[in-house]
Amino acid sequence: MSWVNIVVPIVTLIVGAAGGFFAGVFYLRKQLEKMQSNPEMIQKMAKQMGYNLNKQQMQKAQHMMKNQKFPRK
Question: What distance in Å separates the CA atoms of residue 52 and residue 29, rounded to the nearest whole number?
Fold first, then answer.
């Protein structure tokens, strides 16, 4: 019975970590897909990173985001 007290928490930790990782990847992928069509989100992200994009840089960023493929794995 003592092995159950050791194995169950370890298995639960592994399953929880894997589930959290895949949930995070799914959420990040959805956010990036939304950002492709929303220039305000791109501008906001750039400002949070300390950049101020002009119109030409903004168009280039949008073009790069639209050409980016987010494969499903």
Answer: 24
DSSP assignment of 44-71, as one string? HHHHHTT----HHHHHHHHHHHHH----
Both tokens assigned to 68: 């980016």
Q: Quote the DSSP letter at residue 38.
A: -
More confident residue, 32 or 16: 16
Q: Which pLDDT does position 16 carry in this prediction?
A: 97
Contact in structure between 46 and 53 (CB atoms under 8 Å): yes
- Which H helix or E strand runs over 20? helix 2-36
Q: Say how far apart CA 34 and CA 53 lie, in whole Å.
A: 19
Neighbours of 32 (CB within 10 A): 13
Q: H-helix or E-strand containing 40?
A: helix 39-48
The average pLDDT across 38-64 equals 84
